C-alpha cells in the first residue's frame, strides 16, 4: 500500500460556512470589553509555521519539557493503556506525536493515527513526514475545529486521545471544562485521555516564554491580524501594533495582547449589514489574542472530574515545569453525579 493510499484527508470545514461563522465570531469578539480575537485564528499557514519556530526558542520551555517527558513515558503509557490507535486534537505538525506513535507502532504496526487540526497544510506536512517513517501506519487527517463537538470521527478500537502542549490553557473556565466534556463524550470505556498542562512557576520564566529575544512570538501575535483581514475584508496594519504579554496573577494565566500605536478606524465590509461596521480603536487600546492558564495538580484533576473524566495517573517534569495527566471516561452515573 502506497503512502497516498494510507492517507485519508477529511475536510469538515466547508469554506463558505467557515467564513460566515468566522465573521460572526470575530465581530462578537471585537465588540467585547476587552476586545478579543479568539486564539484559534493564529493558525493559518504562516501562523502554524511561526508557532513551530516558537517551539524551538530557548525561552519557550513548554515543548522541550513535554517532549522529554513523552520520550520517557510513552512506552509505558501505551503498554498500560493498551492503545492501538491515537487521536490527537490540535495536532499541528505532529512533531511530539512521533514519540507516542513509536510506542504504538512497536506493538501495533498497522495502527491508525487520527489527527484533527484547522490547518490542512499542517496535516499534509505531518503525513509527508510520518507515513514514510511508519510503513504500515494509516493516517486519517481531519480538517476541523476541535472546539466544537467531535462529529464524523470514525469508530475504532482502544484509543489514546491526546491533547498536548497545554492547549487547554487557552480556554478560561467554564469553556475548558466544556471542551474536555466534549472529548469525554466522544470516548468509549476502553479509551484513555492524555492531557498536557503547563504548571505554575516563577514569574520570570513564565513571562519570558512569551517575550522571546528574537521577537518570533511578537511576529506570531501580529500575524493574527492578517488572518482577520482575510475574514473580515478589512485592513489592520500589523506593524502598527505592539506585542504585549504579561502574567495575570488574579486569573493565573499569561495574557497576550496587541496594543495600538495610534488611533485606528476600520471599515469592515464582511457583515450582512447594509452599512459597513466601524471599528474605532484609540491610541494604546489593546486587543486580547490569547490566554495561557497555568495550573496546579489539584486544579487539573478537579477540571477533569468536572468534565466527566477520572484521573488515573499524574506525571510531572523533573523541574516541576509541566504535567501530563492520564484519565478515562467516568461511567455515566458517576459523571452525572459530578456534573
Fold and architecture overview:
With 339 residues, the protein is α/β, with parallel strands linked by helices. The protein has one domain (1-147, 156-339): Rossmann fold (3-Layer(aba) Sandwich), CATH 3.40.50. Helix content is 37%, strand content 25%. The chain contains 10 helices and 14 strands. The strands form 3 sheets. An 8-stranded mixed β-sheet has the order 1-5-4-3-6-7-14-13, sandwiched between helices. It has a 4-stranded mixed β-sheet with strand order 2-12-9-8. Strands 10-11 form a two-stranded antiparallel sheet. A hairpin with a 4-residue loop joins strand 8 (241-248) and strand 9 (253-260). Helix 3 (61-81) packs parallel to helix 4 (97-107). The longest helix is centred in the N-terminal third of the chain and has 21 residues, at 61-81.
Concise summary:
By secondary structure, the protein is an alpha/beta fold.
Overview features:
339 residues; alpha/beta; Rossmann fold; 14 strands; 37% helix; 25% strand
